[in-house]
Amino acid sequence: MKALVCREFGPVETLEIAEMPEPPLAAGSVRVKVRSAGINFPDGLVVQGKYQLKPALPFSPGSEFSGTVIEAADGVQGFAPGDRVFGLTSFGAFAEQLVVPAERLNHMHSSVSFETAAVLSMAYGAAMYALMERGRLVAGERVMILGATGGVGLAAVELAANAGAHVLAVDGDDLRLKEAEAKGAKAVFNYETGELREAAKDFAGTDGFDLILDPVGGALGETAVRCLAWKGRLLVFGFASGDIPRIATNLLLLKGAEAIGVFWGESQRRNDNRDVENFRLLQDWLIAGKLSPHIGGHFPLEDGAAAIQALMDRKIAGKAVIEVASG
Q1: Residue range 2-119+293-323, CATH number
Q2: Which of 66, 68, 78, 176 could cross-link 118 (Cys pair, CB 3.0–4.6 Å)?
Q3: What would the pLDDT profile of 39-48 be if each residue is shown by its tens digit?
Q4: What residues contact 258, with CB distance under 8 A and at least 6 apart?
Q5: Taking the CB of residue 77, how many other CB atoms lie within 10 A of it?
Q6: What's the rounded Cα separation, in Å, for the pair 232 and 64?
Q7: Could you give the 3-state DSSP secondary structure of residue 14?
Q8: Domains of the chain by residue range
Q9: How many other C-beta atoms can be found within 10 angstroms of the C-beta atom of residue 267?
Q10: Tens of pLDDT along 220-274?
Q11: In the CATH scheme, what is the code of domain 124-266?
């Protein structure tokens, strides 16, 4: 099978297209013909050896996908050849075939396209887990989303707005922030052009924000803590800036606030979440027209390395898709 292959940890540009052996069908797993695969920021990190998990070399990156079932292992129930599916894996989605545990697959509705399903799992699934499960979001709350034009950030803006929250979308590019407005943000703020605390006060007054999602970290994350309301919740999602913020815990005390770690991958390993319910609800919303995932770029498998680099360089708003196969 053809795959985008990482032979040594290093720059994304060293990835190559190569013929690889088909992965063996493991017990409890399903073999999928990959049609489309979503690109995510961690894909670039894992190739460089900078991610918390390091796969054995050589490997194919890629963690979210859509496609059709080729075969299911003995004893696997609910999946048959030809079924349209989407789901998550640790690695391997940027290849023509993928073997994945059955519990990480979801059936696709006939009205959902492969490219749309390919970007539904990671960003929307993670945003649902963050906002609804860990963040306990309720209608009417004031919500700040940092990194609001990335894949997870843009999905979070859309989901929070759908849930009835009042959303301030924060990022560093005016053009990209227009997409956050289109997804339901009541206001946007470009941190390159002003002070976040002032923008927060303009939006939420002196009361502050009930919920802040921070996938960025760094100085922006440190400032965000100061924008929390009484009993506000800070969702620590990631550190796209490359810097882990130093949170002044006295501010959490004075605000009666919480800093909540959001480690979706570990929750999946522990089977400690509502993923099945969340993905069913996400697809229902998609079919009903309540969600409209923004795909900022389409690339053939042969351009996979350039596609990953473009996403890491923030040249793509929302998500990007690698079209692995057709038909």
Answers
A1: 3.90.180.10
A2: 66
A3: 988 899 999 9
A4: 231, 232, 233, 234, 252
A5: 7
A6: 32
A7: helix
A8: 2-119+293-323, 124-266
A9: 16
A10: 999 999 999 999 999 999 888 888 999 989 999 999 999 999 998 888 888 888 8
A11: 3.40.50.720
